[in-house]
Amino acid sequence: MQQQTPPPNLPFLKMHGLGNDFVIIDSRGRDAVVTPDLAKAIGDRHCGVGFDQLAEIRSSEAADIDLDFWNSDGSRAGACGNATRCVGRLMLDELGRDEVTIRTERGILIARDMGDEVSVNMGHPQLMWDEVPLSHPVDTEFLPLEGEPVAVGMGNPHAVFFVEDIKAVDVPGWGRKVEFDPLFPQRTNVEFAEIRSRDEIRMRVWERGTGITLACGSGACATAVAASLRGLTDKKVRMEVDGGWLTLEWRDDGVWMTGPTQLVFKAEFDTSFLERV
Ligand SMILES: N[C@H](CCC[C@H](N)C(=O)O)C(=O)O
């Protein structure tokens, strides 16, 4: 990928998908500007702007736009459902259409206008051990770890634990330990889910490369798939995360996720700051 030096004042949007917190940079019509160092500098909540993920929009030959995701530790995320919904909202409004296409690392995703909400088809779950990926062949529906989580890939790795009482779970303690377990060669996102009924789940998340967040779209998809695989829920569920509610539906054409998006503010990042860190 061609990379160019960011302009001294780099415009960005702050958007939220259920409190999942994003910086969005529009690099259409130029080379990409985001590097691991720039992502870390902007992502620093004390010296930068702070975000859960940074999404960089780029010109696309295959879809309406290309979209790349970065975590606040400077690592890349292969998927980010809530940022895809946020950028989907921008593109739906800009193009005045009720459907747009967004190419991410995992392929071309469709975002659909649902009035106050945006739906995204996050694609088919990856259920084979080497697709997630895991370090060696195991039963992905019952991983050989304490708590026997389900492993699901959604373009990024997830380990989904089913728990009796979500309030009793030490999310950072348990999440960090699992993120770095050698079973996950690319580390993993970690979800803790309490089943409330066949169509309702409460979920909390520990995100790879970021930590606790108020929501995680790909994690919500992975959790809905895991619950359905285990026979705990139907294929369509409402899910309460720390930041609000999502609707998930595992259909023949992929996992659809629907929820609200919010534009928080527009600003510019002074990239001369980079020389001082
Ligand atoms: N918040 C994102 C997921 C980020 C996943 C990222 N932490 C990774 O390294 O895979 C979402 O809405 O899907």
What does this structure look like?
The protein is of the alpha+beta class and 277 residues long. The protein has two domains: 9-122 and 261-276, Diaminopimelate Epimerase, Chain A, domain 1 (Roll); 150-251, Diaminopimelate Epimerase, Chain A, domain 1. It is built from four helices and 17 strands. It has helices at residues 36-43, 81-95, 171-179, 217-229; strands at 9-17, 20-26, 53-58, 65-71, 76-77, 99-104, 107-114, 117-121, 150-153, 157-162, 189-197, 200-207, 211-213, 236-241, 244-251, 254-260, 262-270. It has a 17-stranded mixed sheet that branches. Strand 4 (65-71) and strand 5 form a beta hairpin. 44% of the residues are buried. The model has no long low-confidence stretch (mean pLDDT 96). Bound molecules: 2,6-diaminopimelic acid. Substrate binds at residues 20, 53, 71, 81-82, 156, 189, 207-208, 217-218. Keywords: Amino-acid biosynthesis, Cytoplasm, Isomerase, Lysine biosynthesis. Catalyzes the stereoinversion of LL-2,6-diaminopimelate (L,L-DAP) to meso-diaminopimelate (meso-DAP), a precursor of L-lysine and an essential component of the bacterial peptidoglycan.
